[in-house]
Amino acid sequence: MKNILNNAVSLIVVMIVLLLIIPLSPFLLDVMIILNIAVSLIILLISMNIKEALEFSIFPSLLLITTLYRIGINISSTRSILSNSGTAGQVIQSMGDFVLQGNVVVGVVIFLIIVLVQFLVITKGAERVAEVAARFTLDAMPGKQMAIDADLGSGLITEDEAKERRYKIQKEADFYGSMDGATKIVKGDATMSLIITAVNFLGGCIIGMVQGGMGFTEVLQVYSIATIGDGLVSQIPALLISTATGMIVTRAVAEDSLNIDVTKQFSAQPTSIMIAGGVLAILIAVPGMPKLQLAVIALIMMLGGFYLLRRMQSFAAVPEQGPMAMGGPGVPEADPMQMMEDEENFKDINSVYSLISVEPIEMEFGYSLIPLVDEASGGRMIDRIVIFRRQYAQEMGLVIPSIRLRDSSSLNTNQYVIKIKGEEVAKGEILVDYYLALEPPNLEKEIDGIDTIEPAYGIPSKWITVDKKEMAEIYGYTVIDPLSVMLTHLSETVKKHAHELLNRQEVVRLIENMKKQSPELVDELIPNLISYGNFQKILTNLLKEGIPIKDMETIMETIVDSSMTVRDLDSITENIRVALKRTITRRFCEGNSMRVVTLDAELEKNIITSLTNGEHGVYLALSPDVMQNVITQMSEEVKKFQELGQSPIILTSQVVRIHVYRLVEQFFPDVYVLSFNEISNNIQIQAVGNITM
């Protein structure tokens, strides 16, 4: 039984092919015609209720099967009409009688109108839309792939989500490519219907007059009913399928099923409905117009529009009357009783301390951005933050503290602010109903939009409307949704300030976690060789320069080995970096090569001779002229990396690396300084510039 069900479609296709050969009785022909109409109606209803085309991905194959089925019925009905003196079952007979109503000319005209509407309007339009959709989908694939890679690289999505989105993009391309070919089948089906109808009518007239001995009037009456009825029972399902084809290929920007989208979008425009009703009311004054019908329809439209308008106003007033979930605009005046309770509460000194606590990470946003955060409104920001925290912990070995989200009445409605330990470190502004299009390096064609700067990386961008999204991807723009823009900015800001988030309590947690793996190593290191505070400083130094602290065992072992000869934390940190050379190479190397800027040997000697011992350790005391020269050259070299789309890297000897970093950090915080000892031996180094004296 299971094998039969698994091969049901194959058996149906074989039966359809047999329809082309085996004659059917009028009873079976009626059954086949009714099934044809039912299946076509089901396909149309499914196409109206899906949210996106891929939910009905079998449609191209189904279109071919239903077309073949319809042709098989046509051939069987043609055989029956020509061999049984116009008799081809009750469905065809009743349909012909109903349409003709005793007038052959009217029936023929109605039939031709149905066929031409299908052929010239629906089928032709669906064919063109499918062709354009297929081309645009294929052209947009590189941009969509880049957007997925960008989200994956910034930690906004997981590897599984990236695979799923890539698979969906490939399925979309395959689907629209198949639809482009499938619409040709619909067009051919409409053409074939006209041919079969003409064959039925002419063949029936010849057979009736030559073989049956009928008169011309009788032949016209008998075979016109059968021909028109047969044409209609095949064209009505064909019209339903053609309409379903058009529905599917035009669902590019749908948010929900067609029924819900139509209701939602019409009800969102009550003013337009009221104006239309008013125009109909004005038409009553035109002489000869049906006044009763116009008055009824105009009244219904104006009352309906007025009702929708009042309903929208009542919904809009709700937030102003009730308190916001996270505080902000629309918060009601304070209750006097509540104020008295708060006053009594803060008389206790311990309660006052709760007012001076500082959140490690905060994000405040304007009123318009609440739907992106509020889970009750479908916001996914909290889920995306959870994914980012997990990925960052896996990559860097540091668990980011919980991020406090709250709305703020002091911000503009589209603004957001990121705070680290209570102080603002980043700020941005996004448009919720738009997409952000990042300009490609070699822009060939510009798209209309609102000029802006991408907040995380400072890339020139444009805010574009939803209808321009696919065109922007074709032009080479990387298109990002508003939530991803805000999450990317948040994640990059957190990464930049991660070293500030590593407090003493987190260090203790990391050490306690290491005790489960290597208790002897931890006991040897802390507190015998190094204190918790100094260990925190070493980890902070690594995080500040983007070095993962995930390999805690290697870090601790290197500290133990280095503590035998040196006590300076900077020297110990440099030894740890050398021990983590594979991690550093993987993090900063692309493929098997690394593009860097090198320092001239004479400049490195000058730096070494400029090192001076002070109260707080060794510091660099370069002359102002040399320092100005180095910074000027560095500014030019950084521009090269911006063109390459890579983070700038300076490669030095291990002796001067830390001092060069401290010099460069003041002017170029996004530049990484590495030493030759921190790069694996199998990596090919490509020098794109050299800084000299």
Description:
With 693 residues, the protein is α/β, with parallel strands linked by helices. It contains 27 helices and 14 strands. The strands form four sheets. It has a four-stranded mixed β-sheet with strand order 2-1-3-4, covered by helices on one side. A hairpin with a 6-residue loop joins strand 6 and strand 7. Helix 20 packs parallel to helix 22. The longest helix has 53 residues. It is elongated, with a radius of gyration of 37 Å. The chain starts with a helix and ends with a strand. About 3% of the residues have low confidence.
The total of beta strands comes to 14
Count of alpha and pi helical runs: 27
Largest sheet: 4 strands, mixed
Low-confidence stretches: 318-335
Share of residues in strands = 5-15%
Q: Taking all residues together, what is the mean pLDDT?
A: 79
Q: What value does the Rg take, in angstroms?
A: 37 Å
Calculate the terminal CA-CA distance, rounded to whole Å: 85 Å
Helix content: 55-70%
Strand order of the largest sheet: 2-1-3-4
